[in-house]
Amino acid sequence: MKASGLMVKCLENEGIEYVFGVPGEENADFMMSLEQSDKIKFILTRHEQGAAFMAEIYGRLSGNPAVCLGTLGPGATNLITGVADANMDRAPVLVLTGQGSTARLHKESHQIMDVVEMFKPVTKWATSIYNAVTIPEVVRKAVRIARTEKPGAVHIELPEDIAKHQVSAEPLDPRRFRRSVVDDKILDQSFDLITHAKRPVIIAGNGAIRRRAAKQLRLFCEKTGIGVLSTFMAKGAVDMDADYCLYTIGLGSKDYPTLAIDEADLVITLGFDMVEYHPRLWNPHKNKPIIHADFLPAEIDEYYHPQVELVGDLAHTLWMLNQRLTTHGIPKYVLAQQAETRRLMQNELAEHANDDTSGTIRPQKMLWDIRQVMGPEDILLSDVGAHKMWIARHYHCHQPNTCLIPNGFCSMGFALPGAIAASLVAPQRRILGISGDAGFLMNVQEMETAKRLHSNLVMLIWEDHAYGLIAWKQESEFGRHTDLSFDNPDWMQLAGAFGWHGHRVEQSTQFADTLETAFRQQGPSLIVVPVDYSENMALTRRLGEMTEPCPVAS
């Protein structure tokens, strides 16, 4: 068979279900071979960036990689933003790009660039196929690396002449093994710290939303009552209705949940990535005792210097702690501050539940209504912008992976293509994407993809005619902001042009009913709401400092 056919067979063997992308001349052989597959579906997108975001969300929801595909040159460069987002947010993704013939890669030639080197900084591994017989090994290695904790993106380049080669190789059978586990002696050291603490608190990160880990975390908290602060990406690791749920951390400012950290005499981090919420924001004096439990060792940082590292399968680590609690009994903890934290946040969340405003609607009101309309298993996807900060603070979850926020690379344009992928993975659930008017127009062309796929999803646009988050930050720091305003299309005409249902809501009391109507309509729906972003600075003043969109290491 052709090498391109062998590539498809290897992908089938790995359980790959979807390839999202925009093909070109240099991967025509692969496309012809893919057309013969009855196991893998190709989703034609309107831009490679959209394809990468779709593959990311498929990976985050399923735990298995999908493929995003582009040709050489601009096709490859268009993929890179979405691939970087997937990699930093720990989503398993395979990136497949075409390349010119190996006979011209050594010299100046049309659209030729070193794509593999370009992808290396934003993937776990990037390689080119130099010999068709190696395809089974390369694909097996790529999938294994993409799936291995921490998951991420892997890039494979297939030059057009290699794709045409005849080859007799066969796919390698996937063999998956149990992850390594923590040593008993080290775990005993951690258990000793946990039992002697009086006011411990847990920070759950991205790694804690794996279903096995979330299950064991909930069992641990049911036994101990220790409160859990979730990062933006760990929403749903514990049920929002549980007494030990202390809601979300990640804003750059002091907030009610951080009070629990201030009072804590031990911080237990579970699956925590430093890109989610830098420790200098919650351990500014570098004096908090920390237990680090994760699949990988802790990043070296002066504000994050754990007393003990529990490196291994996180679910198994929590299971081992639960076993010790059963054997040795439950310690007595002082949890009054955690109860107060929860009470204060519950008051904040409900404050605007009965708003009756016209012309603009407050973020808090919309998110309250969204939570009432959405079921426990339904999925909300947030784009990047001022709305993301409100979603992080005011929208909470019952189950893991039901609120998807990009928080490592933080790329705008994420929500619409992501919602399309979510509707493929979970067609029985309600899918809601929330974007600002700026972020939505960055991948607006995927409205056609959603209509063509008959995607049942709702996109909600918070309209403010500006880059609202940048304005928020500038005004907080300088007392004013530069010109960040722009015009928008007639949204209802835009929806009609793409064959979407369209709704505009300016009365707060009508928002919930409109959202319910949109979910009941067949096919994609667009809801546009003028948002009251005067609440941004009001929140800043109340919390005492500006909220930053993506805390990074110093």
TrEMBL record:
Q: Where are the transmembrane segments?
A: none
Q: Which Pfam families match?
A: TPP_enzyme_C, TPP_enzyme_M, TPP_enzyme_N
The UniProt entry, under PROSITE patterns, shows: TPP_ENZYMES
This protein's UniProt keywords? Thiamine pyrophosphate, Transferase
Q: Name one GO cellular component term.
A: acetolactate synthase complex
Q: Name one GO molecular function term.
A: magnesium ion binding
Q: What is its EC number?
A: 2.2.1.6
Q: Which residues form the Thiamine pyrophosphate enzyme N-terminal TPP-binding domain?
A: 1-118
Q: Name one GO biological process term.
A: L-valine biosynthetic process
**Taking every annotated instance into account, which residue ranges of this chain make up the domain Thiamine pyrophosphate enzyme TPP-binding?**
383-529
Q: This protein's superkingdom?
A: Bacteria
What is the name of the protein in this document? Acetolactate synthase
Q: Residues in domain Thiamine pyrophosphate enzyme central?
A: 188-321
Q: Which NCBIfam families match?
A: PRK08322.1
Family indicated by similarity: Belongs to the TPP enzyme family.
Encoded by which gene? alsS
Q: Which organism does this record belong to? A: Candidatus Thiodiazotropha endolucinida
